[in-house]
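Protein in question filed below.

…
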Amino acid sequence: MREADVVLVGGHSVEDDELKYGLSVTGLIHPEKVWTNKSAISGDKLILTKPLGSGIINTAVKGELADKDMVTKSVRCMSALNRRAAELMAGFDIHSCTDVTGFGLLGHASEMVEGTDVGMVIYTSSIPFFEEVQGLVEMGMIPGGLHRNKEFRLHIVETDPQVPDWMVDILFDPQTSGGLLFSLPSQQAEEILKELHVEGIDDAAIVGEVIESTRGKIVLK
């Protein structure tokens, strides 16, 4: 909270079997400085700033199947703010942006194309994810939220036969404190990616592009 320059103004205690911590966030933003999730433009590149798989790892923790290194990497990622990424983005022509949280990457990406004149292609080989989660998915260590995300949004996703089932599950994994997914002109993508990496946002990657030919759909390749 100190890193984010925010103030805690109240709180409650909850008696439950599991430790919980949540915040209700209130703030102000200039109306001309808002990035919406509905304004992607055909030809844009898509960049994701954090790896996927935290929901699967959290489920493995509950099942006592997560090793120490896996948990350490996941906690480090979840505790990192998106602030620096957003500050860098302010220097570029960001057309559309969403965080990647409980609906998973494909759930939030669906909101970016739903009811618009564009679609997306996601290049699954470029997706950053915690490498350990492949094995966990193949073991069936999948959070309930992943199933619900998949049931709700799978109808707008077209999957190339070469994309493995475990990758599709990772793309629907509900994230805790996930990264940002944003679109910007293709000619700016490599430059901002370089700046993100210089600032220590090492997992940031170009993961796809916005296209017109599949309006309202997401194609996985």
Summary: The longest helix spans residues 186-198. The domain at 45-220 is CATH 3.90.650.10 (Phosphoribosyl-aminoimidazole Synthetase; Chain A, domain 2).
